[in-house]
Every structure is written in C-alpha cells, then in structure tokens.
Amino acid sequence: MLGLEHYARNSGLEHALLELVKTRASQINGCAFCLDMHTKDARAAGETEQRLYALSAWAETPFFTERERAALAWTEAVTRVAESRVPDAVYEQARRHFSEKELVDLTLAIVAINGWNRVNIAFRTVAGTYQPPKP
Amino acid sequence: MTTTFFRSLFLSTVLGVAGSHAGDEALRPTATPGGAPAPAIDRGLLQLAGSRPAGGGAMVAGRSGMRLDYQKVAPGISQAMMGLENYVRTSGLEKSLLTLVKMRASQINGCAYCLDMHTKEARAIHESEQKLGSLAHWRTADCFTPRERAALAWTEALTLIAENHVPEELFNETRQHFSEKALADLSLAIISINGWNRLNISFRLDPESCPVE
C-alpha cells in the first residue's frame, strides 16, 4: 500500500488537490480515520476551513477552481465505480483540466485512498489520534 | 478488549501497514459512516466498460473503446500496483479462492477487462463451470464451500464499502473461516482487484487485449 502512496505523493500533483481528493473519497466511503488524517493534513498545508466544511457539497459552491471541480467529479465517479462506470462526460471534463499523465496519476491516488479507506474501515482503525508531521 | 480494538491490533500487526495510515494507539470504538448520500444515477445512460454480447462476437454499438493506455502514459502505475499483486500471489491463499474473489469484485464493479482475464485464469486452473456460472448468485448456490462463501461475503462488503461499512457480525463470521493473517491477506487481494477495476474501467481497457498467464 505504501508503494501506491509513494507513487501518488511523488507524481507532481498539487498537495492541496490530493488532500481534497483523499478527503472527498473518505467522505463517500465513510472512513473516520482517513477523514481525521486528511482534514488535519489539509489544514496543516494551509487549506481553508470554508472549503473543508463545504467539500461534500463542492458542486454547489463557488470556491473550488475548475481543475479542482474536475478532480472532485473524477474522484466521485471512480470511487463509486459500481454505480457510475465512470461516464464519458466526467472523463471529458477531467481531460480538459488534466494531461493524460496527470489524470492517470490522479486515478492512482484515488485507488490508493480507496484502498486505505477499505483497510481502515474493515479493521476499525480508531480515528482521532493522528497528528500531521511538523513543517 | 473490544472487537474494535482487536481489529485495530490485527491491522497493524498482521498487515504491517501501521506507518502513516494505521494508528493503533487509541482504543475507543468509532467509525460511523460519514459519506454524503450517493447521487441518483440513471444506469440506463451509463455505458458498461467494454461490454459485449453474451458469448463474445461483435462489439456493442456505441462502445467507447480505450480512452488511454495508462500503462504506457505512466509506467510507474503498473509497478506500484504489481507490488500489491505480488504480495497477494505469494500470500499462501488458494489460487482458486483468489480467482473467485477477483471475479466477484469485477462483476460488482462492472470491469469487462478484469472479468475476461480472471475467467480465463479460472478455466486454466480447471475451476468448475458450475461455480463460474453461479458466482454472481453464490448465496443461493450450493456448490461453494463455507470458506469460499465467507470470502465472497467479505469481498462484497469491502467492494461496496460505502453502502455497508463492513458490519461486526460479518467480521466475526468471516473470522470463523480465516486466520488473522489470512483475512488481512484476503482484504489486500480485494483492495488490489478494486484498484485494477477502477483503472481498467476509468480508462476503458479492451478485453481483447487481455493476456492470460
């Protein structure tokens, strides 16, 4: 699992974007441990309270960039793959804002957080104690 | 000691993923589902990845074809995913069981490429046609062993995790058939196939190009 994580972290994708993606996937899957971790990491990296609180309703807000909106729509489609099958419209929107390499890397980041969500939900890793590394 | 604590210890000691993501310090029960409700999606409007008529043959009209070759665009992806895959293959779990698990997850997620691959693998190791044909309805079939049924129930719960959150009773039932190590390994196998499903559906890999080991 750390191999996937290492790849995603070194992919060149913006840290703030990756934290939004990880938080959103964890909201959908219902992973308390991952939500605690990634909201703390996001805050430590300077993310605003306003955007974190509104993340589950991102589509209705004006304060995410078009690139972030495309990434969040892709995250939702890939996370809910059994329902969505990742429609063409979401793919086309994502490709307008991400190069092929960036979109593949973003998808691996979504695969990784979906994996962590499953590990931590299945084995009930307890939320609350995580502390982000000191800058 | 609560089951919650037990599960947490199990994770960090057996699966070895304590690193940055699996704290085992705190003991209180937690993890209530926090996800927003899924949006209504008209399945009729959605296109199955690489779907084709039963029995093979001509492609379905409107099938979109490969979107991009992710292994070529980002070769490191396959290397990262193969790390998981190699762990699973050498875990000691029965190959026939792993193949059934991979097929069932791929059925749920709708991955034509993965279904094609793992059906061929199952046939290559002489899995019975009865099991392959009954897999989507394994709960009402009588050809699966209690261990296979436990693995399939665990596979469905982990694959559809946003809906069910892996209930306590299922965990306790599954532990009747799998050691701690075997259950951790099985879970990693399910995570791995869920990852491959997401990549292959997202980028519409063509089942025609599917290799067989």
Strand and helix map with partners:
The complex is a heterodimer of chains A (135) and B (213).
Chain A: H1 2-9, H2 15-29, H3 32-44, H4 49-54, H5 66-79, H6 81-84, H7 88-97, H8 100-122
Chain B: H1 3-15, H2 70-73, H3 75-89, H4 95-109, H5 112-124, H6 129-134, H7 146-159, H8 161-164, H9 168-175, H10 180-202
Helix pairs in contact in B: 1-10, 3-10, 4-5, 4-7, 4-10, 7-9, 7-10
Quick structural gist:
Chain A is mostly helical and 135 residues long. Chain A has helices at 2-9, 15-29, 32-44, 49-54, 66-79, 81-84, 88-97, 100-122.
Distinctive features:
heterodimer, A: 135 residues, 8 helices, 69% helix, B: 213 residues, mainly alpha, AhpD-like, 0% strand
Walk me through what this model shows.
The complex is a heterodimer of chains A (135) and B (213). With 135 residues, chain A is mainly α. In chain A, 69% of the residues lie in helices and 0% in strands. Chain A contains eight helices and no strands. Chain A has helices at residues 2-9, 15-29, 32-44, 49-54, 66-79, 81-84, 88-97, 100-122. In chain A, helix 2 packs antiparallel against helix 3, helix 2 (15-29) crosses helix 8 and helix 5 packs across helix 8. The longest helix of chain A is centred in the C-terminal third of the chain and has 23 residues, at 100-122. The two termini of chain A are 24 Å apart. The model of chain A has no long low-confidence stretch (mean pLDDT 96). Chain B is mainly α and 213 residues long. Chain B has a domain at 95-206: AhpD-like, CATH 1.20.1290.10. In chain B, 54% of the residues lie in helices and 0% in strands. Chain B is built from ten helices and no strands. Chain B has helices at residues 3-15, 70-73, 75-89, 95-109, 112-124, 129-134, 146-159, 161-164, 168-175, 180-202. In chain B, helix 4 (95-109) runs antiparallel to helix 5 (112-124). The radius of gyration of chain B is 18 Å and the shape is globular. Chains A and B meet through helix 1, helix 2, helix 3, helix 5 and helix 6 of A and helix 1, helix 3, helix 7 and helix 10 of B.
